[in-house]
Amino acid sequence: MKTFLALLHKDLLVGWRGRVRLVGLATYALTLLLLFSFAVGPDTMALRDHASAYLWLAIMSSSTLLLAQSFQQEVEAGAIEGLILLPVPPPALYYAKALANLLLLLFLGVVMLPVAMVLFDLALSGSLLMLLLIILLGSAGIVAPGTLYAAMTARLSSQQVVLPLLLFPLVVPPILAAVKATDLVLEGDAMGQLPAWIGLLAIFDAIYWSLSGLLFGKVLDE
Amino acid sequence: MSQLAVETRDLCRRYGGRWALARVDLEVKTGERLVIMGANGSGKTTLLRMLSTATLPSRGTLRLFGLDPAREPEAVREKLALLSHLPSLYDDLSGTENLQILARLLGKSLDVTPWLDKVGLDARPEPVRSYSAGMRKRMAFARLLIQEPQLVLIDEPYGQLDPEGFSLVDRMIDELSERGTTVILASHLVERAAKLCDRGLLLHQGLPRWSGPATQAHQAWQTLHRSLA
Amino acid sequence: MKLTHWILALGATGLLALGAGHGYGLLATPAEASMGETGRILYLHVPTAWVAMLAFTVAFLAAIGSLWSGKATWDLSMESGIEVGMVFSVLICIQGPIWAYPTQNYWWTWDPRLTTTAIMVVAFTGVLVMRRLIHQHERRMAATAVATIVSWVNVPVVYFSVEWWDSVHQDLSQVSSVDRVMLIPLLVSLAGTSLLGTAFFLARYRVARARYLTEEVAPELPDLPEQLELEDSP
Questions:
Q1: The pTM of the whole model exceeds 0.90
Q2: CB–CB of A14 and B93 under 8 A?
């Protein structure tokens, strides 16, 4: 446990020091939202109806950049070897990195939310807390397999291409559930379907987070 | 507990269709100092990586302090430390912070200044990115020392250092040795490295060609080159 | 019997069985109750889907095996299993629309089974692409194994998608729910397709093994060379 916290501290510290990259990511995400808005045009109904889809597409796209970067520092410095050779259990490495990535993605999501609400002229039917929960669960569903695959592809020069290709099929189910759930919170949940979608998200998160932690050790071995 | 820090029998490693290292029988007693000599591509780095457990052997046996790294990697890694040619440092963090990360992981005190002192660095706030090559090397040594390992593996200890740096390396290896640490160096600066060591192993194209006392290392190196000329 | 002979035997038997099953199914059985004549696609579509999922499952088991023991056989099995699975999955995605267009007037629709199948195809495509890009043998095997295990999660999702969500596909059938007359050609086609799939798997495995033997198998270990003799130093 102490090892895990130490690793988490490292990942957060390194992430914080490189926070200028985070600004770049946030700008990218916001630009995407703007582009969706332009592409759809002045049709406010269409924008509002599909707002949750746009939001999650933007989150998903930004996540790929964020995840690809997450091991980049280590690969460049040769620090990956430095980590492997310490008596640190691989799951601790994984969970620390994944949690750090989750916090970063969450931060992006929270930044995008008000912008999306303005751009797409949204009103919040349900509770804000619920919306934030959905963003948390959806992001978790992306980050878990994403961190695993980021490590797997870190040493490839074609990582930018391979990572999304590998990742997207896996994250489609949680994203679908997240989009549906976000929709219900924004538009209103007449038939009480929200718990079912949140439950589905939670199940995916549980499966991905446990499976990825178990498999991480194999990915690091030479 | 074995008296041997390192014991290998017929150690081999291949990458695809090529044997990078083969047929290495090695015994290094605890506290001994060994220099692995060879040109680039001779298998020095491969051997070092296997000894550090970064890579598993393709064939043969390897025991470190009597333990099998394939079965007990964490127990083995606790005892050793590797200094490779990449410094394993986070560029955005300062030297102090880099060491503190290690200190936290190892459960040691966060006051890392003594370790910086040992390698002749001061605790400045600038990120490691701004360090010179020599300073990075010193940081790498600090990273090594803080782990207080029983076995130290160094790939090209003199790389990127100036003559003052050379003396620093010599001093630190002596210090490590005084504490009973087993030291294994890989270097192509044969004369200098051999002076620090007790024994030498000469590799050529992945195969061992000579092993013996370090006093004869330089001669062995010259003999090999003569025979290849 | 040599591998080639197995491949030919299985392939031939498979084709025969498939032909028999189809022939019987197309000519001699009555039309399906709700779908009419077009329902006969059952004899083709169901076995194809079955073999696709089976092939991916073989790859999944090989992936676990490779993480367990690291022997090259597992890697070759994974590669073959995934590719055979892909072939049959793509066939599924072609057969479906061929049935759908004349009957439903669309090529594709938003439907749980179709969508989950498409996701499964993309997932395994990613795995195959990744294999091409990692050149180091051990790392490629480990990466493929991990990706295969994670991607295989799609297979039960595809299978149960008709139960978990509303789908235009039929619900999961029990053997008892299929009429006896149609059951026989279905099972015969199923057996035939499975045999054919196995033949494909073995053929692909043979190719993979040949490549492995030329590229990756250990060349002969060199002998320990003569150790240097030093002249006596003064």
A1: no
A2: yes
